[in-house]
Amino acid sequence: MKKEYQSFETERLLLRPTNEKDADFLVELLNSPKWLQFIGDRKVRNSEDALKYIAEKITPQLERLGFSNYTVIRKSDRQKIGTCGLYDREGIEGVDIGFAFLPHYEKQGYAYESAIKVKEAGFRHFGVQKMSAITVRENHASQALLKKLGFEYIKLIKIPNDEELLMLFELEKP
After folding, report:
1. Which of 7, 107, 129, 160 could bridge to 16 as Cys pair (CB 3.0-4.6 Å)?
2. By percentage, how much of the chain surpasses pLDDT 70?
C-alpha cells in the first residue's frame, strides 16, 4: 500500500509532494534559464532523466522524513507552475528551504505564497527547529524573498560537491 504524504493549500495554490506524474514538468523547470543560472544543471534532459531524478533525489527523502519537494499547482487552472520544498542537504544545518518557478509565473507572489506555507508546515507539522536557505550572490530576487520570509543572512559557505560560494540564510523556529 502506498503511503499518503501531506499536501498543503493556500488561497491560490496547491502544494503536493512531487511524484512521477511531474516528470515532464520537471524537465521544463530544471532546464529553465534561471534554474540553470542560479541553481545549476541537474542533467535532467528528458522524462526518463526526470523519473530517475525523482526516484533518487526526491522520493527517498519524502519516505525518510515525510517532506521533500512539492509541486506547486495553480488552483484556477490546475497548471504546474513551480516547486517549493524542504531539503535535507549535506553541509547545511537544519533543513534547507528552496523554491523555483517557471519564468512566466515569476513576480506574481507565488514563490512567497508557497514558501510561507512550506515554512509554516516545516515548523508546525514536521517539527523543524531551524531552517536554512542557500543562494548564489547573483540571485537578488531569492535573497529578497528570503529576507521577506524572515531569514537572516549568516555567512558565505561551500557545500559538498559544489565549488560555488553560497550565501547561507537561517531562521529559528518562532
Report:
1. 7
2. 99
Predicted pLDDT of residue 129: 95
- From 141, 126, 25, select the one nearest 72 (Cα to Cα): 25
Residue 106 carries which DSSP code? T
User: Rounded to two decimals, what is the model's pTM?
Assistant: 0.95
Those residues with Cβ within 8 angstroms of residue 63's Cβ, 6 or more apart along the chain or in another chain: 3
Helix (H) / strand (E) element for 166: namely: strand 166-172
Q: How many domains does the chain have?
A: 1
Q: Is residue 87 part of a domain?
A: yes
Q: What range defines the domain where residue 73 resides?
A: 8-126
Instruction: Give the three cell numbers for residue 1.
Output: 500500500
Say if 42 falls within a structural domain: yes
Q: What percent helix, strand, coil does the chain show, rounded to 5?
A: 35, 30, 35
What are phi and psi for residue 28, nearest 5 degrees? -65, -50
- Identify the pLDDT of residue 160: 87
